[in-house]
Amino acid sequence: MQTIYQKAMLAKKRLEDVIMPSALSYAPMLSKLAEAEIYLKKENLQLTGAFKIRGAFNKIASLIEKTSEKTSGAINGVIAASAGNHAQGVAYAAKHFNLKAIIVMPEATPLLKVSATKALGAEVVLSGDNYDEAYTKALQIAKEKNLVFIHPFADDEVIAGQGSIALEMIEEHKDINTIVVPIGGGGLIGGIGSVYKQACPHVKIIGVVASGADAMMRSFKSGQIVKVDSVRSIADGIAVRDVNESNFKLLQHCVDEIVSVDDEEIANAILFLLEKQKLVVEGAGAASVASVLHRKFHIQPKDKIALILSGGNIDITMLSVIIEKGLLKSKRKMKLQVVLVDKPGSLQGLTDILSSVGANIVQAEYDRTSVMLKYGDALITLALETKGEEHQILIRNKLKAQGYVFNEIS
């Protein structure tokens, strides 16, 4: 029987005309913060916006090869369950091989991922509150319509496809001594870890889960599968509830450590990558960076660490929320509510004061009908661009000195 490493070698050949190798990029600002050499493997820049195209394409290509060796048994079509990235990988591969594809996605899947999957020619069925419920529905449809189910992570050919990432990194940078990989179902880290443990066994493999979907980490640390009742995370790509037994066993052999990051830390990493690296990365893809920014594992000054940015298909609405909250937390924006006497000149007096201290008003709402107000008063809600904490202190002091009573909205 072939090992994952051997299968990954074959996968790499199958993927040559499909995958554009994503070079390891040195991250100077992150390296300075971590006090080590940090490199980014930017799988968010793949054709479908994520690494998943590797495993999906390799699996379907292997099925086509096996079918061509037989005189009968043609594939009727393929089906998958996915929160988005695997969906696009399967849809792309199915279109490439002229196969029918049905993708079952959780009902709350971001519109961006649904639309992208449909654009690749696949039929989308929305079902369930999470991946696991969508998975159950997909198995039902597969049986009813005689379709081949393409598992997103519990399949050797899929895992081998993801392992092609490791082969690229080894060819490019043999000095890397630590690889940090997001974990959902475990296919990505299983593929990368298996290849490294055979080709470069000294390299440390660290997995990162979302704290709201940490069943794999709990299982890994306890040595047996631990179940959780539900999952919740902005990193929908790794929000997997149930631990697959075969992947769990694989991770026990090829992973050295698993850590977790919470939604706040993931959001910080998304914003960091957007501002400092000019990269749009989804929650799952930013988990590896979050683990470094928030020191989730021990880093030594001589370490050379590769972080896998697994995907970039983030919903625009979610991204806007992360940016807005990030500006508020970093003191580059503040929101104030001020009660004014509702008469000509009152609002101008307030804006003149804010202008004098260099606060830029980017949004204003004027409400005179709230039942909480006295007759003759108006409530002004302002969003201000500011230049940090000292600037905000100056704004507060100036308003207080002029007799204004205000509340800050966090």
TrEMBL record:
<comment type="pathway">
    <text>Amino-acid biosynthesis; L-isoleucine biosynthesis; 2-oxobutanoate from L-threonine: step 1/1.</text>
</comment>
<dbReference type="GO" id="GO:0009097">
    <property type="term" value="P:isoleucine biosynthetic process"/>
</dbReference>
<keyword id="KW-0663">Pyridoxal phosphate</keyword>
<dbReference type="InterPro" id="IPR005789">
    <property type="entry name" value="Thr_deHydtase_catblc"/>
</dbReference>
<dbReference type="GO" id="GO:0006565">
    <property type="term" value="P:L-serine catabolic process"/>
</dbReference>
<dbReference type="Pfam" id="PF00291">
    <property type="entry name" value="PALP"/>
</dbReference>
<dbReference type="InterPro" id="IPR001926">
    <property type="entry name" value="TrpB-like_PALP"/>
</dbReference>
<feature type="domain" description="ACT">
    <location>
        <begin position="335"/>
        <end position="410"/>
    </location>
</feature>
<keyword id="KW-0412">Isoleucine biosynthesis</keyword>
<dbReference type="InterPro" id="IPR002912">
    <property type="entry name" value="ACT_dom"/>
</dbReference>
<keyword id="KW-0028">Amino-acid biosynthesis</keyword>
<dbReference type="GO" id="GO:0030170">
    <property type="term" value="F:pyridoxal phosphate binding"/>
</dbReference>
<comment type="similarity">
    <text>Belongs to the serine/threonine dehydratase family.</text>
</comment>
<keyword id="KW-0456">Lyase</keyword>
<dbReference type="InterPro" id="IPR050147">
    <property type="entry name" value="Ser/Thr_Dehydratase"/>
</dbReference>
<dbReference type="InterPro" id="IPR000634">
    <property type="entry name" value="Ser/Thr_deHydtase_PyrdxlP-BS"/>
</dbReference>
<dbReference type="InterPro" id="IPR044561">
    <property type="entry name" value="ACT_ThrD-II-like"/>
</dbReference>
<keyword id="KW-0100">Branched-chain amino acid biosynthesis</keyword>
<dbReference type="InterPro" id="IPR045865">
    <property type="entry name" value="ACT-like_dom_sf"/>
</dbReference>
<protein>
    <submittedName>
        <fullName>Threonine ammonia-lyase</fullName>
    </submittedName>
</protein>
<dbReference type="GO" id="GO:0006567">
    <property type="term" value="P:L-threonine catabolic process"/>
</dbReference>
<dbReference type="InterPro" id="IPR036052">
    <property type="entry name" value="TrpB-like_PALP_sf"/>
</dbReference>
<dbReference type="GO" id="GO:0004794">
    <property type="term" value="F:threonine deaminase activity"/>
</dbReference>
<dbReference type="GO" id="GO:0003941">
    <property type="term" value="F:L-serine ammonia-lyase activity"/>
</dbReference>
